């Protein structure tokens, strides 16, 4: 049997899936509009259609799912069930594929792509959601007949009967035991449903981060991978100066579950709340923002500046500002604007203004919406290539945030499909962009000013190695010199009163981990331009 788990597998499957899915749609369209209306209300059919678009047409699950589910006319319970089916199946896809292949006694490539997705959904229901065996089998067979064709019923029925004959733990042992013991990475990758290269990247990042040296944090890569498969808490941010955490809490429905954030003084973690229905979120006085993202903005805003040695010497744009100004902030990669809105509300309280930049017009529009409640904290929203700022506006800013485009592998809880979509070879192109943006930021900031380089990825090539490379370049560069600041020390000072955020001994960059901080795996480095 070929490995159904090879890391390139999902993309290959996705491509073939697209064809098969298009065929499925054509078939259902032939049945006419009335039947579409009826099928749209079945959670399994809706989940199948969403998965087909995500896997076959590169749709974003977090954008597509709420839209399709809201338009389906389903009950709240069915909407929640559908969302769980979609996210859970995507998260656990590698393990599900291994189980389906073992039960089907054939390779994934030998199973029709639509049939495979039907079986993934069936296996997820039976083994992860506890749907009773008979319901899991009969609903999966019905789905196969509707979306694949009557001919698929017999095969799906046989495979599903084999799947429900064992529980999840038994299947896990069976499929993992078929992988040689020496291949620990593949074993973890299958058990916790991650591509092998992602397992390796996460392990390397963990080892390099410094936590592994502390007795308090044993190396448990399995625990880290498992966290990627758990739905994250919804975290709100009460934007300072616009609303307090207490007032935000008062705007939530009376039966809402909520608790203060673990780290950010502006965070409120909520459950059983539809954030878009909250008045403060609608008016952008509050927003949905992971605590790791909030901390990145807070670290930039709190990083100490130093006076310009000998007065300003570069860039006309800032020549008239006092010796240690703190009034012009740049958010170089701003879309959709979560961090911008927090920075702008802090800036407004301190008499500063943020220039927000986002080259994608659609995302720049989202930034404009997000900052609409705090116009006094915003200078402008521009749509340029961030790499151009260094030359166009040298030394113009006191603080710069580079929240760089990245692989997003630090937010797998939120974007389960990213692990199947990104490939190891995509990283090199990203790091070139990241280095260009950071180098540009170091030119755009004034001497004595600070740059926060942030990624929602723990991959070393996108994090410390980008900073190392750019610092080495800047040191060689005659007119720009920068040093690394103690981002860990700044982080400890910005967390809410009484919170002791775990960071490794010593000074340096911050790498947050889901299993330690319960945030996205955010990387934060702070650099100060010396001259
Ligand atoms: C990680 S996201 C930023 C998230 C945002 N800071 C927030 O908190 O909502 C990275 C952004 O960088 C933008 N981007 C991509 N290439 C860029 C470039 N050359 N210059 C500036 N921004 C870029 C992407 O469009 C994307 O919106």
Bound molecules: S-adenosylmethionine
Q: What sort of overall outline do the alpha carbons produce when their principal axes are compared? A: globular
The N- to C-terminal Cα distance equals: 60 Å
The number of helical elements comes to 24
What is the CA-atom radius of gyration, in angstroms? 25 Å
| Spans of at least 5 consecutive residues with low confidence | 1-39, 311-321
Provide a descriptive summary of the structure in words.
The protein is α/β, with parallel strands linked by helices. It folds into three domains: 165 residues, N-utilizing Substance Protein B Homolog, Chain A; 48 residues; 239 residues, Rossmann fold (3-Layer(aba) Sandwich), CATH 3.40.50.150. It is 49% helix and 11% strand. The chain is built from 24 helices and twelve strands. The strands form two sheets. Strands 5, 6, 7, 8, 9, 10, 11 and 12 form an eight-stranded mixed beta sheet that branches. A four-stranded antiparallel beta sheet has the order 2-3-1-4. The longest helix has 22 residues. The chain is globular and about 80 Å long. 51% of the residues are buried. Bound molecules: S-adenosylmethionine. The site of S-adenosylmethionine has 22 residues, from helix 17 and helix 21. S-adenosylmethionine binds next to helix 17 and helix 21.
């Amino acid at each position: 049997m070929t490995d159904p788990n090879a890391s390139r597998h999902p993309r290959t499957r996705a491509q073939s899936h697209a064809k098969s899915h298009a065929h499925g749609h054509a078939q259902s369209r032939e049945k006419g509009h009335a039947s579409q209306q009826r099928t749209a209300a079945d959670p399994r059919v809706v989940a199948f259609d969403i998965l087909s678009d995500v896997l076959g047409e590169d749709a974003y699950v977090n954008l597509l799912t709420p839209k399709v589910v809201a338009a389906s006319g389903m009950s709240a319970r069915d909407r929640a069930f559908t969302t769980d089916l979609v996210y859970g199946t995507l998260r656990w896809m590698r393990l599900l594929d291994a189980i389906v292949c073992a039960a089907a006694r054939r390779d994934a490539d030998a199973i029709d792509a639509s049939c495979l997705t039907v079986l993934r959904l069936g296996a997820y229901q039976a083994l992860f959601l506890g749907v009773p065996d008979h319901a899991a089998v009969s609903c999966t067979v019905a789905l196969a007949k509707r979306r694949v064709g009557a001919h698929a019923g017999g095969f799906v029925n046989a495979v599903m009967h084999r799947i429900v004959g064992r529980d999840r733990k038994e299947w896990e042992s069976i499929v993992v035991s078929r992988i040689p013991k020496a291949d620990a990475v593949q074993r973890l990758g299958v058990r916790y449903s991650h591509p092998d290269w992602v397992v390796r990247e996460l392990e390397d990042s963990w080892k390099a981060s410094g936590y592994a040296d502390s007795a308090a944090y044993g190396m448990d890569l399995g625990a880290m991978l498992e966290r990627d498969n758990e739905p994250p808490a919804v975290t709100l941010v009460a934007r300072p100066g616009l609303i307090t955490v207490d007032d935000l809490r008062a705007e939530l429905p009376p039966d809402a579950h909520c608790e203060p954030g673990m780290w950010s003084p502006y965070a409120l973690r909520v459950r059983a709340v539809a954030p878009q229905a909250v008045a403060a979120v609608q008016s952008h006085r509050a927003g949905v923002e992971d605590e790791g993202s909030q901390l990145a903005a807070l670290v930039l805003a709190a990083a100490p500046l130093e006076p310009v040695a000998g007065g300003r010497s570069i860039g006309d744009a800032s020549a008239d500002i006092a010796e240690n100004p703190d009034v012009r902030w740049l958010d170089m990669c701003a879309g959709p604007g979560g961090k911008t809105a927090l920075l702008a509300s802090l800036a407004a309280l301190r008499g500063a203004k943020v220039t927000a930049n986002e080259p994608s017009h659609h995302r720049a529009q989202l930034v404009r919406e997000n900052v609409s409640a705090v116009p006094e904290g915003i200078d402008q929203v521009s749509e340029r290539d961030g790499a151009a700022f260094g030359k166009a506006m040298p030394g113009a800013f006191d603080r710069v945030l580079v929240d760089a485009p990245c692989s997003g592998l630090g937010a797998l809880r939120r974007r389960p499909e990213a692990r199947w979509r990104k490939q190891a070879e995509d990283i090199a192109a990203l790091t070139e962009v990241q280095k260009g943006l950071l180098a540009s930021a170091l030119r755009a900031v004034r001497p004595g000013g600070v740059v926060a380089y942030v990624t929602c990825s723990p991959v070393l090539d996108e994090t410390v190695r980008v900073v190392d490379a750019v610092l080495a370049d800047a040191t060689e560069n005659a007119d720009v010199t920068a040093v690394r600041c103690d981002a860990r020390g700044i982080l400890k000072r910005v967390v809410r009163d009484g919170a002791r955020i775990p960071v490794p001994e010593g000074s340096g960059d911050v790498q947050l981990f889901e299993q330690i901080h319960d945030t996205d795996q955010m990387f934060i480095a702070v650099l100060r331009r010396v001259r």
